[in-house]
Every structure is written in structure tokens, then in C-alpha cells.
Amino acid sequence: MAWKSNTLNLQVVDTELSADTVEWCPVPASHDILACGTYHLEKGNTREDDAPPSRTGCLYLFEFRQEGSVRPPLTELQHINTAAILDLKWCHVPFPGGAVLGLAAATGDLQLHTLSNSQQEGGRRLHPLCSVEVGAKRLALSLDWSTGRMDSSDVRLVCSDSEGGISVLSLAEGSLAVLSHWKAHDFEAWISAFSYWDTQLVYSGGDDCKLRGWDLRTAPSCPTFTSKRHSMGVCSIHSSPHREHILATGSYDEQVLLWDGRNMGQPLCETPAGGGVWRLKWHPTDPHLLLAACMHNDFHILHCQQALEGGGGASPVVASYTLHNSLAYGADWSRLALEEPAPCSPVAAEKESLTESGGHLRIQYESPTTSFDTSLEDGVGHYIPESIAAPPVTTTEGPALHPNADAKSASYVLASCSFYDHMLHVWRWDWTPDNTALKSDLC
After folding, report:
1. Rounded distance, CA 115 to CA 415, Å?
2. In terms of DSSP H, where are the helices of 153-289?
3. Angle at CA 428, nearest 5°, toward 399 and 116?
4. Torsion of CA 75, 77, 81, 87, to 10 degrees
5. CB atoms within 10 A of CB 154
6. Residue 257 DSSP class
7. Cα 390 to Cα 323: distance, rounded to the nearest angstrom
8. Ordered DSSP codes for 5-16
9. Mind listing the pLDDT tens digit for each residue in 251-307?
10. Who's near 263: CB < 8 A, 6+ residues apart?
11. Contact at 8 Å (CB) between 299 and 321?
12. Which residues partner with 161 through β-bridges?
């Protein structure tokens, strides 16, 4: 059976400063909450030659509301001026005070915020919980929680920094404590991540082109393995929450590698993604789907079933989102269940002509500081975001490429952000049987 893949823009928000990380809340009561972090480097005008540059940022909190096509779905709940933000991650399990968001800051701090849901406290807002410095004169570059499989028995975090260091921290009684810290890489340690199946195992990737594993039960100064399979800096790692031992890594070398953690000498498969792979995210429920933020080459969804079942070969791209105008950095899947099918576009003819002519549709932004929604209305004032988002529809052949076996179709909400144009996009991806192709086959 052929499957039709279509991406549809829902809303665009100007974040003012460069957007580099975006995360949907995984805690069930807050699946409609989205956080976005920004980064800005203040240039020049310092009197001291050796004074460190100033890096500022902002933490945004949004709520996603499904109210048909009448209005944009995102509502800004809060923004907090902070140091520049390099990474954001929600803890996968709730705490007594609510969902907890971790923030890796350019000041070298790892900061935690709790999300309140009480209307009596001013609505859903983030409140500072605690913070700890992972090292002096360094940037905190990434973080990960040990809770990827919803296990709350031993909540810990891992953080990487610009001096090549890795820190493992515990969270108890509202306080962070550094359990261990070691030099893991010769240059920037761009990424760190837990194995979600054995949280005594930690992975790290650095600008020294090395992917390394660490066992926290032994001296962390000695890696369990070092791989130089990537030819450039390793900047993305994500452990699969669905299949034990499976790991995805991305690099400036533009390759996505899938690994079996029991054999780190040779990857299961290698997929050229293009543009440098800054972030990778496994889908929260479908074990075969992998979202990739590819810097100079937009955002792509890979279908990894063949590689995971031992078939080898590159993982095919089943969908792409190409409406950003700058470096593709942050991306994440929402766990929201969509209530309605994708609306039919009133500008289908215009889309078809653009696609046939080979034109590359890009969004033109009118407002420098607010959501771009003022011109997204039809003659009677209905919100029509699909009129600005017309990437080509792709059709995927073959029985191996389909959503989960029990699903007749798949529809997901995603968020992505890009750097120099400081834009946050919320979009949906629909993957459905191509009834047109089916009717053609029957004729």
C-alpha cells in the first residue's frame, strides 16, 4: 500500500533572539505545554580585553490549544529573561510540585524550573526550583534526564560543557547535587545522554569527533568505548525509549548513525541527512520514527524499521519540513492527540502550481516581535495557516513503511526552531493511506 505524507504549518512565532531549543512537556497533565529557549551573543564595547562575552537569552512558555481553524493554536503564557540557553529538557516524570524543566545556561549553570498548574498561583507558569554551577568559565551545552522510560525511582541528570566536561547530578528534595564530574573530550562536549535502559551508562559526543560511553559504576575517567566513526564533531545522541540497546547519533559530518550498544564498533546503519545533524529525537510512541534537525538542511523524519530489524541500508526520509529560513537547531515531537483531521486547503491550486513549477515556498515575515497570524485569514476571517505551508506531498511505497501496525493513519504535532531568523514553528505531519493511488490500482 502507498502512504501519503504531508506536513502543514500551524503557526510561526518570532522569538526575537536566536532560537536554538524547543521541548514539549512529556508529563501527561501538561502535554499541551511547549518551552523554547533562545541565545544571543552581545558583541563589542567591552573595556577589558579578557572580559568574557555577554550571552543573554529568554525562556518562553506556550500553551497549545486545539480550537479548530479559527485562531492560532499557541498562546504565550510566560517569558523569562535568562542567560543564553543552550539546551532544554523536561523531566519525563512529574514531581510533587509539578513538571520540572531543566535548562543548560551559558553561565555554566544547570537550572531547574517547576511548572505550576494552579489558577490560584496565576495560572500555568514556571518557577525557579534550584541551580548548580557545573564549572567555572564554561558554557553548559546539553542535558538529559535518566527518566526516558518513565522510571522515577532514581532521578538524575547528565550535563556536558564547553570545556569537554561531563557532570552527573542527582535531584532530591528540591536540590541538585553533583555526583561526579570528569574530563571526557579534548574540546567542547556538545552532547551527553543516558541510556534509558541502564541509567548507569552515559554517552557523550564532542568536537574531537569522538563518541564515548561511560559506566558510572566504575571510574568515569576511563570510557567503556571510544568511537571515531563520525568524521566530525558529534553533536546529537538519543537513546531509544522503545528498544533496548538502540542509540541514534548525529554529527557535523551530516550523518545519522544507528547503533546497537552491545557492538559499538560498527553502526547498524548510516543515513546521510545533510547540513549537520544538531538534534535527534525518537518518537514518544512509534519505535521506528526519528526526527532530525539538520542545521543547513531543514528538518526530516526518518523511518528506521529496516535498520532496527537487521535489514541494513540507509533509513528513508518519510517527511521533511522545509519552511525555516535559517539554521535548523531545535525540534521535538508533541504527545498530543489530534482531535481533527488536517483541514482542506482553500489554496490547493496555488500549492499545485508552486510544486509543479519547482518553486520553493518560503514564509515572508511581517512582524518582528509577534506571531505571524495577521494575514493568515480567508475572506470570512477564518485562520488558514495551510496557505503559507505547502511543502510537496510525498508518497511512500512498500509494506515496510507505515505507522504502527494497529494504526490506520498517523497525525502528529511537532515544533521546530531556527537560529538566525529567530523563529519557532509549530506544524503537523499527517501520514495516511493514499486512497488516490489505491483507486488507480483498482481501475
Report:
1. 19
2. none
3. 125
4. -70
5. 12
6. E
7. 9
8. EEEEEEEEEE-S
9. 999 999 999 999 999 999 999 999 999 999 999 999 999 999 999 999 999 999 999
10. none
11. yes
12. 140
